[in-house]
Design a protein that fits this description.
Strand content: 5-15%
Strand order of the largest sheet: 2-1-4-3
Distance between the termini: 33 Å
Structural class: alpha+beta
Helix content: 55-70%
Amino acid sequence: MKKNLQSYSNFLLYISLVSIVLALLFFSILQSKESESLQENGVVSTQVRSIIKDGSQGMENKLNTIVQNTNQISKVEVYNVKDIDGYREVFDYVESVKPNFEYSRNFAFTSLFVDLLPSGNGDSNWYIVTERRSFHTLSVLVLFLGVIFYWFSFTVWSLKKAYDQNRLNIGWVIVFMLFNIIGYSIFHLANNRINSKQSFE
């Protein structure tokens, strides 16, 4: 029975450590994708402005090529705003008319918490709207859930260790819940000091 309890205690410790490591790993991967998405958005905007300067002939095919060469861009819209004055008027105009040139695609798979974020920029002649996948919300959610799961499982492990050593009281419960691994480190040092005093008595 004691051996089973020890195995359960070890399992709690391992699962808490694995959960925080995985959370940090997936957070880093998703943030890397977010950086890629932001970089592609800037590159696409620059490329579109460049081909507009070369003329609008074959624009749809050129937009197709630009978007298909990216991993995170889902849509590009180009508006002729030459006769529109003021930023507010441009925004209202873009919201109310169809773009002069447009290309969009659907991703084969998009997670529930992956957002499609539009952004726009332009000059006095053309206004360009791009839409990209954003992984920021998903990355923060993964990290948050991983930290919560780690915090809970490590706290339970700490409580069990204190109980096994007959040191568990309301004070240590609060310390473990609030300070987690730091709280357990304080408990471990305090427990060692008590054991050292008892050994000299």
